[in-house]
Design a protein that fits this description.
The chain has 265 residues and is of the alpha+beta class. The chain has 8 helices and 15 strands.
Amino acid sequence: MSLPAAGAGVDLAPFVDLAHRLADAAASVVRPYFRSGLEVIGKQDASPVTIADRDAEAAMRVLIGKAYPDHGILGEEHGQERTDAEYVWVLDPIDGTKSFISGFPLFGTLIALMHRGRSVLGIIDQPILRERWVGVEGRPTTFLGKPARTRACTDLAAATLYSTAPEMFRGADAPGYAKLRGQVKLPRFGGDCYAYGQLANGHVDIVVEARLQPYDYLAMAPIIEGAGGRCTDWQGKALDMASDGRVCAVGDPRLHKDVLRALAG
């Protein structure tokens, strides 16, 4: 007998409640460190990490372990455990650490819940501005508890494009990104996860990124798609743990093929 599809027939409400508690716990750790002059530690990949990242993730892991000890966890700072479980939480305590350590409130805590390999719940939480986006499979995305909605945009020449940094697009990714950037009305850099939130709110039309890790992108699809958009890899496939780290999010699904066509060079 075949198993039901991921998310099918599953009551996600208890997991949504826990996800809010995780975001609250991370925020309570992160806020006191913001603009405090805390020490920045270099990681092996040369990206910065702080005690705020590590303590925030640790706090979330404790709550997950108490509520659902059989669930798996993948976190940026403290690694993975039981990632073959039916449910796996994917955590990035501070997405946008460079913004955080520079004093810019354009970072966020990312929380995703995977069910049988599919992302069914996502949260972007900005703890300083106290802004929160929540996406749940089968439900409208919310921003501060109210429905979030992407805006209509069918023409690349009218679109606003965001990406975190130009150095994301190197080697084989560079020509396609350059083509896309040359076709849009307003290309901008910066924002990290915050740009996806603004796409869900209807202020941005496209977010394209590369060289991401699962904890950077798995929260995005439920949020963007629940707000009316699409969020895939550069081939138009659903994002999962095995995706190659290249993300294409659009507010208007009618724009999706044009973006992918440009990225293909």
